[in-house]
Amino acid sequence: MEWGHIVEHCDSVWINEKTRVLKPVFTGDYQTEIVTESGSYFSKKSCLELLQLVCLRYFSDYEGRIKAARHYLKYDRKTPVYLGDANFSCFPTRSPKHPECMWIFNQEYSIYAYDLANKKTVLLYADAATIEVNASRHTLEKQLNRTIMMVYRARNLERS
């Protein structure tokens, strides 16, 4: 594993509109790799702890965001999270309680490759960066569609 920047304080500030993925890591003291447009950062906090801090930054909490998304969208599992505005949302690849759950942020990407046997998919971004995620193509497409519906619904609520 190639190590990026190690962050000790204010880990959640690295989670913003330029974030691509939150990835659990199981090496040393670090629990999460924060993959952004400008590189990777490592945190001692879990993915859920970091998402909670981001939600608090926007005067809410993770549980409230999930509850609201479920209320409007009727998704009981793998619910996407609206973090602040239309350009800042994410979805889980598995149950958020699963230790290997990754969080994919709503940056534009395409599916570059898919390994059916291992249920791993490679995402390709406009700058040619690639990220391997532990989810099938079907799961990623379904979760992305849910996230798009959530953003659409949130925008409509903001206008009314």
TrEMBL record:
Pfam families: ComK. One of its GO terms (biological process) is establishment of competence for transformation. InterPro entries: ComK (IPR010461). This is Competence protein. It comes from Paenisporosarcina cavernae. The lineage of its organism: Bacteria, Bacillati, Bacillota, Bacilli, Bacillales.
